[in-house]
Amino acid sequence: MNLSRRTFIASAALAPVACGGLSYERAIPVAQPKPLPMVRPPQVGQEWTYIKKDMFNGKTLDVINERIANVASTITIERNTANGFKLPSEIQTSWGMVSTDTQWSRLIQFSPALPLWPEQLSTTWAKQFVTKYSIAGYPESRMNWQQYMSVQGWEKITVPAGEFVALRFQSLINFESDDPNKVDCIRKETAWFVPQIGRWVAREASGSYQIQGQIGAVILEGSYQWQLSAYK
User: Fold this and answer.
1) Less Cβ crowding at N or C end of the chain, within 10 Å?
2) What is the C-alpha separation between 82 and 102, in angstroms, rounded?
């Protein structure tokens, strides 16, 4: 994968992505806060609980609790389902820089780490990141990952945990699959980040890919939404 920034943005923006009845696309735009809020620093014991839904049918798939368990040379966020089943932990090299990402169907590891939210909480911020990733358990296989993150604006959004003023940002991702038959792998993610709680309150993700040799046949992947239901 060796896409120019312009080519990547165009291909990702035009890629079909899953959509359904669930969406926060109509959150209410608001003016950028003045002064800009500070991002809450991490502390052991901070928690966030999310409801994960299928955006196609609105079905609740899981309720996931995330808790900061360690703040040292790395930051560990432990994760459990509502019934107590332990999930893989998220690892950050520093606050907001993820090296072990749990938000995908498989646990993946980035080197170098990627930002979880915009580096600047400004409506004009946008940046492209290029890194390598591997699937947990297979560190010898490092594949290409290209991500363009851009701020869309400040919005008022309501989720089960309450009403928040959040920074909406979007990530357009083009990555190399470990399956050589899958090409043009695209992901689109939209998140509403609230600096005061140090995490997003809503997030939506969808994606698509093509099969090698099958020109024009675009396959849509699952489309999911996460809603914050509680935090501390």
Assistant:
1) C
2) 17
Q: Under a CB-based contact definition with an 8 Å cutoff, are residues 50 and 64 in contact?
A: yes
CATH of the domain at 92: 2.40.360
Structurally, the chain folds into a number of domains equal to 1
Range of the domain at 169: 5-231
Question: What letters, b where the CB count within 10 A reaches 16 and e where it falls short, cover 140-158?
Answer: eebbebbbbbbbbebbebe
Structure tokens at 208: 């698509």
pTM of the predicted model, to two decimals? 0.89
> In terms of Cα–Cα distance, which of 66, 117, 39, 87 is closest to 232?
66
Could you report the per-residue pLDDT of 110-149, keeping only the tens digit for each? 999 999 999 999 999 999 999 999 998 888 889 999 999 9
**Segment holding 170, helix H or strand E:** strand 162-175
